[in-house]
Amino acid sequence: MMRRCRCCRRYGTSISIICLTFIFWHQNAEPSHASAGFFPLDSAQTSSGMNESDDDRDTRSIVTRLNEKYGRQWSFKILSHDIDENVAIVLGEITASGMTKQQFGTATLYHAEGEALKAATSTAFIKTAALFGIHTAKRQVDTPPIRESVPVPSSAPVKDPPAAPPETEQVIISPEQQVTNTVIAWSQAWSQQDADTYLSFYAPEFQTPSNVPRRDWETARRQRLSKPGFIEVMVSDMKVLPINSTMVYVRFTQSYRSDTLQSVVDKEFKLKQENDRWKIVRERVIR
To answer: Are residues 257 and 183 located together in one domain of the fold?
Structure first.
């Protein structure tokens, strides 16, 4: 009998929804693909289509298509999950034929946290599958007929429309590029040992390590920045993973070098857009 992990006990949901120890047996797939792939879907829903939501049907459809395309050479796993401001957030990852892609899924908490986490997991799975060219079937939507306009003859002379003003070329920076620029500027401020600019990248609600008081954390960071003779911080392999229009996760490799220490770690930022700037609200070392 499989044990329920701490997160499953906390959210009161099946281990097959959150954890990765459940092999998905897709009963509606072709026999040759019956054991293909891994997906943490609630096993109670795989026996029939009763009480299935649209997300459940979409998930089942995606599993079938992944099985058809990759056979046994694909897997899905949950990298992280959280409840933040009444929103369930799940980061999913699909590996297929040597390729790995990640996407976030979110769901609003209307009732049980476990149900929201399950819905966010399905969304992450569907969005990640789309990066492999696997999409859900489009549902037909009834649209009202378009009424054709009939031109009315007129004896009045037709005047030429006024000339349009010359267009001015505008450089539009995508939110992903804005976030990337923010992380690079953060690393540059650290390299320049500019504590004021460095600390300005952190939001007022930033979650300090071990929940130490913000003032104590800032004092410690100022000392860490000023003590070395020189600091060089480089960021690479950056992945911007949007949660919604004002919140993103960023994963990257941080290379740190000073006259006393060298280190390379993988980091994750959670950033929130405040006015026209992206601010760090959470920072953690992945490994």
So the answer is: yes
- Interstrand relation of 231-244 and 99-108 (parallel, antiparallel or unpaired): unpaired
Give the up-direction half-sphere exposure of residue 201: CA atoms within 13 A in the CB hemisphere.
Answer: 23
pLDDT tens readout for residues 167-210? 666 667 788 899 999 999 999 999 999 999 999 999 999 999 99
Full domain range(s) for residue 34: 6-130
- The tokens describing 204, both together, are 């007022």
pTM above 0.85, yes or no: no
Domain total of the chain: 2
pLDDT tens readout for residues 88-103: 888 899 999 889 998 8
Cα separation, 191 vs 262, in Å, equals 13
C-alpha 214/C-alpha 211 separation (Å) is: 8
DSSP SS3 for 280: strand
Q: For 171, phi and psi rounded to 5 degrees?
A: -90, 115
Alpha carbon distances (Å) from 125 to 44, 120, 141, 186: 19, 9, 24, 31
Q: Give the residue carrying structure tokens 């954390």.
A: 217
In a domain, 33, yes or no: yes
> Considering the domain boundaries, does residue 168 fall inside one?
no
- The amino acid at 78: I
- Structural domain includes residue 243: yes
Measure the CA–CA gap between 103 and 276, rounded to whole angstroms. Answer: 24
The reply to whether 77 and 184 lie within a common domain is no
DSSP 8-state symbol, 202: B
- CATH number, domain containing residue 266: 3.10.450.50
